Amino acid sequence: MTEEMIQVKNVNKMYQDLTALQNVSLDIKKGEFIALVGMSGGGKSTLLRLIAGLEKPTTGSIKVNGDNSKSIMRMMFQEDRLLPWMNVLDNLSFGSKDKNTKAHAQELLELVELGDYADHFPNQLSGGQKQRVALARALMTNPEVLLLDEPLGALDALTRRKMQDLILSVCEKQNLTTILVTHDVEEAARMADRIVVMKNSTNYYEETCPKKRNAGQIGIVADRVLGEILGEKEAQMQTA
Amino acid sequence: MQNSVALPKKKALRLPVTKLLPFLIPIILVLFWQVASSLGWLSSSVLPSPLAVLQDGIELTQSGELPKNLSISLYRATLGLLIGGGIGFILGFINGMSKTCRLLFDSSIQMFRNIPHLALIPLIILWLGINESAKISLVAIGTMFPVYINTFHGISSVDPDLIEMGESYELSKRQMFFKIIFPAALPQILVGIRYALGVMWTTLIVAETISASSGIGYMANNAEDFMDMETVILCIVVYAVLGKISDLVAKSFESLLLEWQTTGRSNV
User: Fold this and answer.
1) pLDDT tens, B106-149?
2) Which of A149, A140, A115, A150 is nearest to A129 (CA)?
3) Is residue A211 located within the same domain as residue A136?
4) Domain edges within chain B
5) Which ipTM value was assigned to this complex?
6) Which of B228, B232, B236 is nearest to B202 (CA)?
7) Of A173, A192, A207, B16, whose CB neighbour count within 10 A is largest?
8) Other Cβ atoms within 10 Å of A68 Cβ, number
9) What 8-state DSSP symbol labels residue B131?
10) A168 close to B (CB below 8 A)
11) What pTM did the predictor assign?
């Protein structure tokens, strides 16, 4: 648990004149569940995309497992991004004819409780089912790092709660290092070991969550995190 | 239980009606045409009766003239479409995939596309004469642009989120094309092919009417010289049937290749 899986060192990201991230450093241990929260434009998704290797930092370095290897990471996006022309099983295996790949895909579908939906097309599934397929697809290559870019944002409250439990149980079983970007502070307080509040491109706050937590503790952590986010916004409004 | 018994009966009654409905208007028109001819409302020199056209068709089939001309027209149309469609697809593919190729070729292709291809007939005759290559070239030029435009548009408008997903899953370039780009562009490519089929027949009719010694267009043109109205109408009907068959073939391809678009939620 003490081994560093992800090391973000003095990362800056500029989009022409706009500074998205300034001097960000973050260490994430193997098996740790981190939540990135904050106002829109705070750089949460940018940081996740940099870690995923979808974009490159302007300066600074990001190391995953001592290297900058993409192959041990898989990402779940806000939209399911399933291929509509492939059935569920082929979406997991990208149409591979390999029997072992198919068998592994079927196992993962059982894990996300969609074992009977292998031959369905994405347009036959509900939003929650699609995200469960996307989760199964992310687990296909047995990743060590799972990156979640607001994957539950579009789901209703009940489906969202079920998905949170499913993700938590999968991450725990497979000892995945996980980064979750979310707008929902309660979701962050419920799921994460550590919450990183990204107030703006330069200002960060960290909150460590209790190991075992009840609803009351979740509420207290969520309130504290929300206070940090809103406090910054109120200060900005006063300055303005 | 009563409902589950009643439903299939309703379906059994409805299915033939929906299948027959598209034929209703053509049948009524032909019947009206036949009645109008039989009652003398229509002169045979203006419009011969459907029965006279049918009889002419039977005679031309028995003599071998219609099958011979039909097969040569089909040969020209198919070969022209394969060449033009193939070139259009390749150009659309490379311009859709490569920004450099797009900058190099697209502007020139768009310039040529705006020239009506039938306006090239005199030039094609001067270059290639009135032999097969002239007619096939005209069909190829006509069908190339719809396939090009739709392939290019289909490939360049693939959802970037899907491409990004493919990148994050480290798909190879080959996998990226065959698993994501081509299937995503396919609906648009098929629209281009369907449109090209229409252009294919129009171009062939014109090409065979102006410069040919065989083919359905030639038959119609020749019949006009002899005031043979039955054969003129027969040729028009043959073109209409060929057009309809092409459209049905294109539709079958669409339903076969794009099955996922119509698979609904009903069997969830």
Assistant:
1) 999 999 998 988 888 889 888 988 788 999 999 999 999 999 99
2) A115
3) no
4) 50-257
5) 0.81
6) B236
7) A192
8) 12
9) S
10) no
11) 0.80
d(CA A128, CA A161) in angstroms, rounded, equals 11
Angle between helices B132-156 and B182-210 (to 10 degrees): 160
The structural domain count of chain A equals 2
CB-CB under 8 Å, B180 with A52? no
Are A40 and A84 contacting, i.e. CB atoms less than 8 angstroms apart? no
Q: A76-109: per-residue pLDDT in tens?
A: 998 899 999 999 999 998 867 778 888 999 989 9
| Nearest Cα to Cα of residue A154 among A136, A129, A174 | A129
Residues in B lying within 8 Å of A, measured between beta carbons? 161-162, 164-165, 167-171, 175, 179-180, 183-184, 186, 258, 260-261, 263-265, 267-268
Cβ of A54 and B167 within 8 Å?
yes
Nearest CA in chain A to B256: A85
Residue A192 lies in a domain: yes
Best to test chain B binding among A54, A75, A78, A81 (most B CBs inside 10 Å): A81
- Map residue B263 onto helix, strand or coil: coil
Report chain A's C-alpha Rg in angstroms.
Answer: 18
State the CATH architecture for B50-257: Orthogonal Bundle (1.10)
Q: A161 CB contacts (<8 Å, ≥6 apart)?
A: none
What's the gap in Å between the CA of A179 and the closest CA on chain B? 16
Whether residue B180 and residue A83 make contact (CB cut-off 8 A), yes or no, is: yes
Please report whether residue A60 resides in a domain.
yes
Residue A213 belongs to domain spanning = 4-72+149-239
DSSP string, chain A: --SEEEEEEEEEEEETTEEEEEEEEEEEETT-EEEEE-STTSSHHHHHHHHHTSS--SEEEEEETTBB-STTEEEE-SS----TTS-HHHHHHTT---HHHHHHHHHHHHHTT-GGGTT--GGGS-HHHHHHHHHHHHTTT--SEEEEESTTTTS-HHHHHHHHHHHHHHHHHTT-EEEEE-S-HHHHHHH-SEEEEE-SSS-EEEEEPPSS--HHHHHHHHHHHHHHHHHHHHHHHHH-
The reply to whether A54 and A162 lie within a common domain is yes
CB contact under 8 A, A84 and B260: yes
Q: Look up the CATH number of the domain holding residue A182.
A: 3.40.50.300
